[in-house]
Amino acid sequence: MTDEQLISMLVNRARSEGLQLTGEGGLLQQLTKRVLESALEGEITDHLGYDRHDPAGKNSGNSRNGTRSKTVVTDVGPVQVRVPRDVAGTFEPQLVRKRQRRLSGVDEMVLSLSAKGLTHGEISAHLAEVYGANVSKQTISTITDKVMDGMAEWQNRPLDRVYPVLFVDAINVKIRDGHVANRPIYLVMAVTVEGHRDILGIWAGDGGEGAKHWLAVLTELKNRGVDDVLMLVCDGLKGLPQAVETVWPRTIVQTCVIH
């Protein structure tokens, strides 16, 4: 039986039994449950080294020890799955990890909605209305805070000592700061000595940046290890050439040809 035939059979069966395709208890939730549980069964089989009821498991030193019920929030709503356990307690499922309550798709939706300027309450209400997923404001805050922690670690990572070229440019994005408004986000992108491109940092501005702002940005890069830059390309940002001369006196400042 092909995948298309199997899907068609399941959909027709759902319709004949009056089962909804989406929503609470719908076909998509049931399929998600089956797929997750099958994958988890495969994981514990791989961990133990033998299939369920296989005589090879006798006196092997470890065996299955039933299951525990767990509800995870997925793209199609909350799904209750049975997670297998082993006697030795050494089984560490990878698809649905211990203490994990959300699959990655939900995190991606939360971050996408947050980036569009929605409040935590609006995100929670949206997920409940569209997916039937009960995601608390605290959970949403935990997701966004986790990303911010990773962003801070990336923003402060050590840099190379020398870069042949730095590009400084801005893009306008919507940022919520009491209200949603367009603000410039400045990016510093480098070309490494190996010829690769690398974004060194991202800084939010308000449109009125001058020499003091750029001196702080470039000093931060220098403190992270950048001793020398051969050329810096920008679009005539006010105060930037003066800041470059202070931090890297021998660097050539080149206005991009478009500007």
How is this structure best described in words?
Strand 6 (228-234), helix 7 (240-247) and strand 7 (252-255) form a beta-alpha-beta unit. Helix 4 crosses helix 5 (137-155). It is built from seven helices and seven strands. It has helices at residues 3-16, 27-48, 104-115, 120-131, 137-155, 211-223, 240-247, and strands at residues 64-74, 77-86, 162-176, 180-191, 197-204, 228-234, 252-255. The radius of gyration is 27 Å and the shape is elongated. The strands form two sheets. Strands 5-4-3-6-7 form a five-stranded mixed beta sheet, covered by helices on one side. A two-stranded antiparallel ribbon has the order 1-2. The protein is of the alpha/beta class and 259 residues long.
Tell me the major beta sheet. Answer: 5 strands, mixed
Helix content: 25-40%
Average pLDDT figure? 79
Radius of gyration: 27 Å
Q: Give the overall silhouette.
A: elongated
Number of strand segments: 7
Strand content: 25-35%
Helix count, per DSSP?
Answer: 7
Q: Number of domains in the coordinates? A: 3
- Identify low-pLDDT runs: none
The rounded distance between the terminal residues' Cα atoms is 61 Å
Order of helices and strands: HHEEHHHEEEHEHE
Strand order of the largest sheet: 5-4-3-6-7
Derived from helix and strand composition plus strand pairing, the structural class reads alpha/beta
